[in-house]
Amino acid sequence: MARKDAFILQDVEFIAASGSLAIVTGSVGSGKSTLLSAIAGEMSDVSGTISRQGTFVYAPQIAWVFSGTLRENILFGESYDEPRYTRIIEACALTKDFQQFPNGDQTVVASMVAPDVWLSFLTRKLPSEQKDKTNLTIYGGLVTASFILGSIRAYIFFLVCLRSSERLHDKMVVALLKAPVLFFDSNPVGRILNRFSKDVGSMDELLPLQFLASIQLALLLLSSVIVPSATNPWVLFVTVPVTAMILYFARFYLKSSRELKRLESICRSPVFSHVSETLDGLDTIQTRGRQRDFMDKFHNYQDTHTQSFIMVTASGRWFGVRLDAIISLLIGLVVLVVVLVSQDAASAGLSLAYLIQTVTLTQYAVRKSSDVENFMTSVERVITYTKLDSEPGYQVDTLPPEHWPYEGNITFRDVSMTYYPGGPKALRNISLDIKGGSNIGVAGRTGAGKSSFVAALLRMPDPDGEILVDGIQIKNINLRAARGCISALGQTPVLFSGSLRKNLDIMKRFQDADLWRVLEDVQLKDFVQSLEGQLDYELLENGANVSVGERQLICLARVLLQQNKIIILDEPTAHVDPATEETIWRVVREKLKDSTIITIAHRLNTIRHCDKVFVFKEGGVFESGKFDT
């Protein structure tokens, strides 16, 4: 096996007989996942052959679901056979969980007036009265001033627009980071991505251009009316009623266009969501042969979006036809008035020149104004996100004492919690004490309340009752400060796109010597030294260019660096090989012995060495004590 940000299998012979159980094991980065990907047809083979018979099912390390009902996720395109479906649900121990959902298994989971007047004035003079040098100097000065002032105007305008967009973007990020967990449960990731991609892109790139253009066109149109009216007041008797007619149609069009654009933006979000979900579950979709189902679903979403987009375009054409007819009428009437009452050929020519350009300017100006209104819906949608209700704890300004928590003692007093108002209780009257520095195990079946117990400690959301850490009730201190004293290491490692240094120390509080120390503690020092750039090595999204075991060890190093008194472990060795598992537990025992460790167990072996075990059942503590008892 060779590796340069890629995994290559060499000289592999693998045979698995029908009905047999084959186990693939090996050290971190040895190619276990690559072998399975090759069998699933997700890797390109350079030489050799891969053959298989029968159907193929792929169960990835990270569970994947798509937006739809629970039943749709389970059937995954298969026909519904109730007896068989019921047996499968019972075998997976999901019957009781489905009964707690409001809709059972049908529960959904989750876009030059001055130069022209001067030229007209010159045409009135006889050639003998004109002074070429003076005329050219004045005209050139006007053009130069127009160029300079226009450049300054554009620079200031775009600078203000971009700074405003940047501030709105930053406010939206902060608001999302402070939003309650329930918001993310009820809003698909595609909808949120749509705000940051299409809507922010419109504010950055399209809205400033359209806004500036609409202002310029409005001023040009105003000059197209003022100049002819000043030279020939009779023109007003034609332009005023026609302008009123144009404004009537424009008002009707702008109102409809704005709503159509909003509808188009709403229809775009499912497309983003579906593409994001499909990419996340691509392995499962391909191995189950459901590509056609997901393509059909994408086509349905895209067709709906295309229909709404065509309506936006058609409304523009509808208005354009009527506007052209009105402008043609205006020009005809003005020509008639100028021919009948004008005595000055230069003034008549100036009036006609300005009014003729309204043919294109008027329609263009209204369309640009419409575009501004349409793009303002993006601003509206972004502002809506900036005003999201934050978790209540962020409104608390009280900070804990310095160096708190001191020992890591945790006390729950009659704690109950629901994830949304009126929902079922995830925790029921929990009362318990955890001594600082102890190793605590939390066990129980799925839905028993293990994760809810940790969520209450992290105030996601704020529970009823009292939770004290070293005698201080955490509900009375700032939420960020309260969560900052807790480190967590879950089943799925969380890494960001960026350097390894950034992933270890995102707040830039530690020296390089500290980073190398924790990397040595988790046995990754040699690995990092072998990377190009070492601590500045760029990790891809979710750490895709390192193995799963290496990702988990990097996250463990981050926990060591934080040196917090309370550590939450959610089965951190579920997806790693035995050698990495042994390394993780050795580091936990030796380097985190002074911290309070809470381990959520999905395997009994995980909590065998805990000082005390709490067994949860139906949101309450069913029993507690030593593992052996």
UniProtKB/TrEMBL annotation:
Principal localization?
membrane
Q: Which InterPro entries match?
A: AAA+_ATPase, ABC1_TM_dom, ABC1_TM_sf, ABC_transporter-like_ATP-bd, ABC_transporter-like_CS, ABC_transporter_C-like, P-loop_NTPase
Query: Which Gene3D superfamilies does the record cross-reference, listed alphabetically?
Result: ABC transporter type 1, transmembrane domain, P-loop containing nucleotide triphosphate hydrolases
- The transmembrane residues are 138-162, 206-227, 233-254, 321-342
Q: Which domain of life is it from?
A: Eukaryota
GO-annotated molecular function: ABC-type transporter activity; ATP binding; ATP hydrolysis activity
Membrane topology, record value: Multi-pass membrane protein
| Compartments (UniProt record) | Membrane
State the PROSITE patterns in the record. ABC_TM1F (PS50929), ABC_TRANSPORTER_1 (PS00211), ABC_TRANSPORTER_2 (PS50893)
Locate the ABC transmembrane type-1 domain: which residues? 108-381
Q: Name one GO cellular component term.
A: membrane
Give the UniProt keywords, A-Z.
ATP-binding, Membrane, Nucleotide-binding, Repeat, Transmembrane, Transmembrane helix, Transport
The record's family statement is: Belongs to the ABC transporter superfamily. ABCC family. Conjugate transporter (TC 3.A.1.208) subfamily.
Q: Which PANTHER family match?
A: ATP-BINDING CASSETTE SUB-FAMILY C (PTHR24223), MULTIDRUG RESISTANCE-ASSOCIATED PROTEIN LETHAL(2)03659 (PTHR24223:SF456)
Q: What is the name attached to this protein's record? A: Uncharacterized protein
Q: Which organism is it from?
A: Pocillopora damicornis
